[in-house]
Every structure is written in structure tokens, then in C-alpha cells.
Specification:
The protein is 46% helix and 18% strand. The chain is an alpha/beta fold.
């Protein structure tokens, strides 16, 4: 009899508690849905950035969900390395998309051993997704080569600024002097300046939250430059013709007219990540 009474009281308390907290449980479900939606939005931002900024020939490591999203939006399946319990590390890829699942799998080794630098970061806290550069030969050799590369970029940027066929905005000149411009872009600008005068309006395309040393891979060139013999299409045509015949690492992925703050420009862009050592640099 005592057991039955206790059971009856427990059932009544349980029903009373359910009535009082049913709304809270529903609220918890809504909160969970909002969290999932926020995570999906962050994932979509990262996927979109990779599609726009990372070359389709680059091997990209990702968790199954992100790999599926990239493939669904046209990224070549053959360029995707799906990470999972049986994948020892992302080495062999150029970029790893560090979702919470990937960070959980590799822990602190992801940054210390495999992918030290961030190309772009989306979201914050535990939901953050980083697009990171993979150090294929290890972190120490990568960082030494990156430092040498930045120094070479500074020297090449200074040489461009001393070229009488090159003019640049104050901001662009500062970025050239600081070694912030991609090696492929520096070589391309040097090539174009041999053809005719060029006017550098701006550099761009740095990813949000990018690590120091990650280069700017896009340049906006004015439709004419000081000392040029032509303007508009007549000025841009020989520049475009010289760009489209480039091969290998020096072939730009975007060469197109654009508008920058109402100004007509020629936009030249290279994919991420930048190959290190193109300017003849070697790790010390």
C-alpha cells in the first residue's frame, strides 16, 4: 500500500512539474533550433568564401558536412579530403576548414602542427569556423619560409614603387612597402609596368580575421595612368592580353572590369593560398 501511495504522489508531482515546465522545454527546443540555424549560417559563410577565394585545384580538407556543402555548390569532389576518425591529419591538403568537429578531432595539434595560419574566420566562440593554411612540411619550416617570403615581398614592393611606370594610392603604397601584397600579384604588376604605365588604386580581398602575413591577392588598376598614351578600353586591352596568356602559378583567376567606389577599374585576383617561395625565397 505504501509503495502504491508513493507511486501515486510521484506521478502527480511529475504531471505538475510537466505542466509548469512544458513551456521551458519548448523554449529549450527553440533555443536549440536557433543554435543550429546560427551554426548553419556560419558554415554557409565559410563555404561561400572558399568557393570564391580558394582555387578549385587546391586540396581542401573538411568535415563530412562541409565537404558535402562544397561539392553540392560545384567544388570538385576530387579536390576534397574528408576528415574523420580514420584520417590521421590534414597534411597533403592546401587548406583545412576548421569547424568545431575538426578542432575536436585534432585538438591543439591542428594549429601547432598542421595549420598555423588563418586565411579567414567566421563566427565566434565554440561555433567559429576557420579556413586555415596547411603547413605541408611542418609548422617551423612553414613559418621560416613565410617570414622570408614577407621580406622578399617588401623588397619587390619597394622596387615597384621606384618604377617610374608605377603610381599608387597612399594606402596601396603603404601595403607594398609592408610586404602585404601577394608574390604573384607583385610579379604581375612588374610585368604590366613593362608594357605601359599602371596606376594602382587599391589592394584587397583579405579574409576576415586573417593571420598576419597573409597576403592581399587582388588589385584594382585604374583605366589610365600618368604618362599612358591611351585611356579606357584602349588602355586596358594590352594589359588584359598580357594577363590571359600567363600560365601556372602566375595565371590570375579573375581579370575583369569592375567598379570601385564609382571608379572604373581593371580587377586582377589570384586564388588562396599563396604558394611560398615564388620570389626565390628559401627558409633559413
Amino acid at each position: 500500500m505504501l509503495i502504491a501511495a508513493v507511486a501515486g504522489v510521484a506521478l502527480a508531482v511529475s504531471r505538475h512539474t510537466a505542466g509548469r515546465h512544458g513551456t521551458s522545454r519548448h523554449g529549450g527546443s527553440e533555443a536549440g533550433s536557433q543554435t543550429l540555424s546560427a551554426a548553419a549560417a556560419i558554415r554557409a559563410q565559410a563555404v561561400t568564401w572558399v568557393l570564391q577565394q580558394v582555387g578549385s585545384s587546391a586540396i581542401v580538407s573538411c568535415d563530412p558536412l562541409v565537404c558535402m556543402a562544397l561539392a553540392a555548390r560545384g567544388f570538385p569532389a576530387g579536390s576534397l579530403l574528408q576528415l574523420g576518425p580514420t584520417t590521421p591529419n590534414p597534411v597533403g591538403s592546401a587548406v583545412v576548414i576548421a569547424t568545431p568537429a575538426v578542432r575536436s578531432q585534432y585538438g591543439s595539434q591542428l594549429e601547432s602542427d598542421y595549420a598555423p595560419d588563418v586565411l579567414a574566420s567566421f563566427g565566434s566562440g565554440s561555433s567559429r569556423i576557420d579556413v586555415r593554411v596547411v603547413a605541408s612540411r611542418g609548422t617551423a619550416p612553414y613559418q621560416a619560409l613565410l617570414a622570408a617570403d614577407v621580406a622578399a615581398r617588401k623588397a619587390a614592393g619597394a622596387a615597384l614603387l621606384h618604377n617610374r611606370n608605377v603610381t599608387a594610392s597612399a594606402t596601396a603604397a603603404s601595403q607594398l612597402s609592408a610586404g602585404q601584397v601577394d608574390s604573384r600579384l607583385l610579379a604581375t604588376l612588374d610585368l604590366l609596368a613593362r608594357i605601359q604605365p599602371i596606376d594602382i588604386v587599391a589592394f584587397g580581398d583579405s579574409g576576415p580575421g586573417a593571420s598576419a602575413g597573409m597576403p592581399l591577392r587582388l588589385v584594382d588598376l585604374a583605366e589610365a595612368a600618368r604618362g599612358a598614351l591611351a585611356t579606357g578600353a584602349a588602355y586596358l586591352k594590352p594589359l588584359q592580353a598580357s594577363l590571359v596568356v600567363q600560365r601556372g602559378s602566375y595565371r590570375a583567376t579573375r581579370i575583369a572590369p569592375a567598379q570601385l567606389a564609382g571608379q572604373a577599374v581593371l580587377q586582377v585576383q589570384f586564388d588562396a593560398p599563396e604558394p611560398l617561395g615564388l620570389l626565390g625565397t628559401r627558409a633559413p
